[in-house]
Specification:
Length: 279
C-alpha cells in the first residue's frame, strides 16, 4: 500500500506508539529526576490534582493528534494545528479579558481562514482526519489557556509534564479496550516484530529528549525566540514530508498552506513586539 492508502485507512499505528512514548518518557523523566539530571520539586497531592484538567487536555491533544496524523498529510496537519492559537486567543479574550493587538487579530484571521478553507480545496480530503484535527486543536487551545491560569504557575513545565506522563499512561491503558484499540492491536501485523517495539522505544526516547530540550530552551531564551525555532522546525518538516509521503496539492491548497504560515509568522512578530514593549 502507498502512504496515501495507509493514511486513508486510518491505521492507528500512532495511537499505539503514543502509549510507548508516554510510558518511556515518563520512566526516563522519573529516572532523570531521581539522578538529579533534571529539577523537579516535590509537590502536594492537591497541587497534582489541580493540574488534572490540563492532563486531560494533554491526553486529548495527543490522542486526537495521532488520529489526525494517521489520515492527514503533515503540512495540512500543521495548518490546522496552528488554528489552536485561535481557540487559545478566544478563550483568553473572554476568560482573562485581555485586549488583542491589531496585528494579532490579523494573524488569527489568517490562521482561521487557512484552516477553514483548506478542507474545501483539499484533494485528499478525509472527514475523519479533519474531525480529529478539530478535536486536537481545541484540546491544544484549551491546554494553552489552562497553562496561563494562576494555579498552573505552582508547577514548573517539567512538573506539569511529569503529571501528564503519569496520567497519560493510566488513561490510555484503561481506554484501550473501550476505544477498540486493544482488539485492533491484536490484529496489528507488526505486533510481534522487535523492530516495531524498538522503534516505539526510540520514539519515546526522542519525545523525552525533545521535551527536556524545549524546557531548557525556554529557560535560556525568550519565549518568542523559542517560538521562532519551533516555527522553523515546522516549516522544514512540512517541506520535507512530501519526499516521504504522497501529498497531492493544487493552487488553492498551496495558498491555504502559505496563508497559514504567514499567519503564524505574523503572530510570532506580534508577540515579539509585545515582549519588547513590556521589557
Amino acid at each position: 500500500n502507498s502512504p496515501t492508502q495507509d493514511r486513508s485507512s486510518g491505521d492507528p499505528l500512532p495511537i499505539r506508539t503514543e502509549r510507548w512514548q508516554t510510558l518511556v518518557g515518563g520512566v526516563l523523566l522519573h529516572v532523570s529526576w531521581k539522578l538529579g539530571w533534571v529539577e523537579i520539586s516535590s509537590f502536594s497531592r492537591s497541587t497534582a490534582f489541580s493540574w488534572l484538567p490540563g492532563s486531560v487536555l494533554f491526553v486529548g491533544s495527543i490522542y486526537a493528534g495521532s488520529r489526525a496524523l494517521s489520515r492527514l498529510p503533515i503540512p495540512v496537519f500543521f495548518t490546522l494545528h496552528n488554528a489552536a492559537e485561535v481557540a487559545a486567543c478566544i478563550l483568553q479574550r473572554f476568560a482573562q479579558k485581555e485586549e488583542l493587538p491589531f496585528t494579532k487579530l490579523l494573524s488569527i484571521l489568517a490562521l482561521l481562514t487557512a484552516a477553514g478553507v483548506l478542507p474545501l480545496c483539499d484533494p485528499q480530503f478525509d472527514p475523519g482526519g479533519y474531525f480529529w484535527a478539530v478535536v486536537h486543536l481545541l484540546c491544544v487551545g484549551g491546554y494553552k489557556v489552562f497553562q496561563k491560569l494562576p494555579k498552573s504557575g505552582l508547577l514548573s513545565d517539567l512538573e506539569q509534564q511529569y503529571i501528564n506522563y503519569a496520567f497519560s499512561v493510566l488513561l490510555l491503558a484503561s481506554a484501550a479496550h473501550p476505544t477498540g484499540d486493544l482488539l485492533g492491536a491484536l490484529e496489528f501485523p507488526f505486533l510481534y516484530l522487535y523492530r516495531f517495539h524498538s522503534s516505539c522505544c526510540v520514539s519515546g526516547i526522542l519525545g523525552f529528549l525533545m521535551c527536556v530540550a524545549t524546557v531548557k530552551l525556554k529557560s535560556n531564551i525568550p519565549s518568542e525566540q523559542c517560538g521562532t525555532w519551533v516555527f522553523i522546525a515546522k516549516v522544514l518538516a512540512a517541506c520535507l514530508s512530501p519526499l516521504f509521503f504522497d501529498f497531492i496539492v493544487n493552487a488553492y491548497t498551496v495558498s491555504c498552506l502559505l496563508l497559514g504560515g504567514l499567519g503564524e509568522a505574523l503572530l510570532l512578530y506580534t508577540e515579539k513586539n509585545v515582549a519588547e514593549r513590556r521589557g
